[in-house]
Structure formats: C-alpha cells, structure tokens
Amino acid sequence: GESVGLHLPTLSVQEGDNSIINCAYSNSASDYFIWYKQESGKGPQFIIDIRSNMDKRQGQRVTVLLNKTVKHLSLQIAATQPGDSAVYFCAEGLGYSTLTFGKGTMLLVSP
Amino acid sequence: GAGVSQSPSNKVTEKGKDVELRCDPISGHTALYWYRQSLGQGLEFLIYFQGNSAPDKSGLPSDRFSAERTGGSVSTLTIQRTQQEDSAVYLCASSQNGARETQYFGPGTRLLVL
User: Fold this and answer.
1) Å from B109 to nearest chain A CA?
2) Confidence category of residue B77, pLDDT binned at 50, 70, 90
3) Which of B35, B40, B98 lies nearest to residue A7, judging by beta carbons?
4) Do A43 and B41 count as a contact with CB atoms less than 8 A apart?
5) A50-95 tens-digit pLDDT
6) What's the CATH number where A40 sits?
7) pLDDT, tens digit, for every residue of B11-33?
8) Terminal CA-CA length for chain A
9) Which of B43, B48, B102 is nearest residue A49 as measured by Cβ atoms?
C-alpha cells in the first residue's frame, strides 16, 4: 500500500486470524526480497527472504509469495498473535546492490 | 555473540551542532550499513561499507553527512551543522559477507535536533 504523510497503511486483525501484508516493489529486475518486522523502539528484524527464481517460500507461521508479473510480494502470517503487532517492511535487492526498503505496513492484532 | 549495538540510544542536540553516532557490528561481519528512518517512514539508505572496498556513499543526503569504518569493524556516522530535518532514527546494520546477505539491525539512535 501507499503511505500518506506520516500515516502508515494499517492492517487490523483479531488474534487467531490469518494476516496478509502486501508490498508492491519498484524494480522488475530485483532478484532478492526480504520481509522485516520492526517493533516499537527496536531495529528491524529479519523474518523471511525469497529469491526471484521462487514464487513461494514458507517459514514458521509465515509464507512469502512473489508475483513477478505484477511486481507484488506478500507476507502471510498464520494464526496471528498479539506479539506479531509491529510494522512490516519489504525490501528488494538486485545483484550485489544494497536493499531498497518499502514504507511499511503496521499490523495491529487485537486479543 | 552480541548483536549490532549502537550508541547513544538517544541524542538531543541544538541546530548547528555536530553529532557522532556509533555502530558496533556483529563480530566477523564484513558489511556494514547506515540507514535513516523518519517518523512513520521506511528506511532510507545512507552508506554501505564492504570489507576494504571504497564505501558506497550514494545515499548520503548532503556533504554534512560522513561516515568512517575503522579497522573493518566499528563505524561512526557524523552529521555536521545539524538541521531540524536531520531528526530521525539512525539505524546501523551488518551482514556477514555483503549486500545479498541478511542484514542484522541495531536498535538505532534517536536523534532530535532542536
């Protein structure tokens, strides 16, 4: 999603629901993608990554889907918990260049 | 071992003053990055050090910003003649071998320029 001013796009879910966070990336040549989680007052924490030769990768409770046709990346979190509340960033990379980060989506999980 | 550490955790300064922010990367990591994060925004790349190669300074917003990495380990980001728009969280990250590796972030330094 897009951010307007200081307001991050926000996804509000109930505990136990599945969450899907979306990201549109900018460079069709990007070949490496990462999702980071950032809790309030902390630095970003790596969640999961995916190379462009894959379209799906699963971790513990998380799945990343990559659609290169429309330059879209999504993070699915199963059985969302209050501890999942954070800002989630996608990042894209190409070759050995540095990563380009998106603006982030805030996930709010209600008990 | 310890993760990436940064100091100070918070810094309040007056407009026009110089500030130095420190980053201690994970031991053995050859790559080190500095980012800036403004309130409610994503991460803005500033500078990237990889081993003994010349740093990638392409993200530095002005010549008031500079960074050094001594001995391939600790890095210092210096902002000269700070402006109010420099207020942000400055994040440091390191990775084992380079830009394609997972970056591990420090907690950041929150800079407020009055």
Assistant:
1) 10
2) very high
3) B40
4) no
5) 999 999 999 999 999 999 999 999 999 999 999 999 999 999 988 7
6) 2.60.40.10
7) 999 999 999 999 999 998 999 99
8) 25
9) B102
Domains of chain B and any CATH numbers: 5-101 (2.60.40.10)
Contact between residue B13 and residue B101 where contact means Cβ atoms under 8 Å apart:
no
Q: How confident is the model at residue B66 (pLDDT cuts 50, 70, 90)?
A: very high
Whether A7 maps to a domain, the answer reads: no
Determine, for residues A99 and B103 on separate chains, whether the beta-carbon distance falls below 8 Å.
yes
Closest Cα in chain A to B56: A98
- Sort out which chain A residues have CB atoms less than 8 A from B33's CB and list them: 98
Confidence of residue B2 (pLDDT cuts 50, 70, 90): confident
Asked, for residue A82, whether it belongs to a domain, the answer is yes
SS3 B61: coil
Q: What is the DSSP string of chain A?
A: ---BTTBPPEEEEETTS-EEEEEE-S-TT--EEEEEEE-TTS--EEEEEEETT-SEEE-SSEEEEEETTTTEEEEEESS--GGG-EEEEEEEE-TTSPPEE---EEEEEE-
